[in-house]
Specification:
Order of helices and strands: HHHHHHH
Number of helices: 7
Low-confidence stretches: none
Length: about 130
């Protein structure tokens, strides 16, 4: 963002709004204007953080997976075997139960991953099973 200082709070605000908007509609039907409005920012501000709609979309998925990985780590910390598996499963189901539309969205677009964001998506998915 040349000339302007990045604001992590603004970025998070945009990502939360984008997650909500992308979770309710097909990617191709979501205008960037709708995400900007939901985030309470101008379209120009949104583009300062995410130059394309695709980058915004992938950033929502990557951030969601980071939150999931963090929650899974906390849920399974110090647990092994069946107890660990139960904690992992309970956390995973609860996470996506609270984000049902997002789970559908991720499933719908996972096979359409583009680079370089697709690699970040695959890496996080692989971390869940390791």
């Amino acid at each position: 963002m040349a000339g302007r200082k990045s604001d992590p709070g603004k970025r998070s605000q945009i990502l939360r709004a984008a997650t909500d908007v992308f979770s309710t509609r097909e990617f191709h039907t979501v205008p960037v204007d709708d995400v900007a409005t939901a985030a309470g920012v101008g379209k120009g501000t949104l583009y300062l953080y995410f130059p394309t709609k695709e980058q915004l979309f992938y950033a929502t998925i990557i951030e969601t997976l980071d939150v999931l990985l963090s929650e899974l780590a906390r849920a399974t910390e110090g647990r092994r075997g069946e107890e660990g598996l139960r904690a992992f499963t309970r956390c995973l189901v609860d996470f996506f139960w609270r984000r049902r539309a997002l789970a559908v969205l991720m499933h719908r677009y996972e096979h359409k991953q583009r680079e370089p964001e697709g690699e970040a998506w695959r890496q996080r998915r692989a971390r869940m099973v390791n």
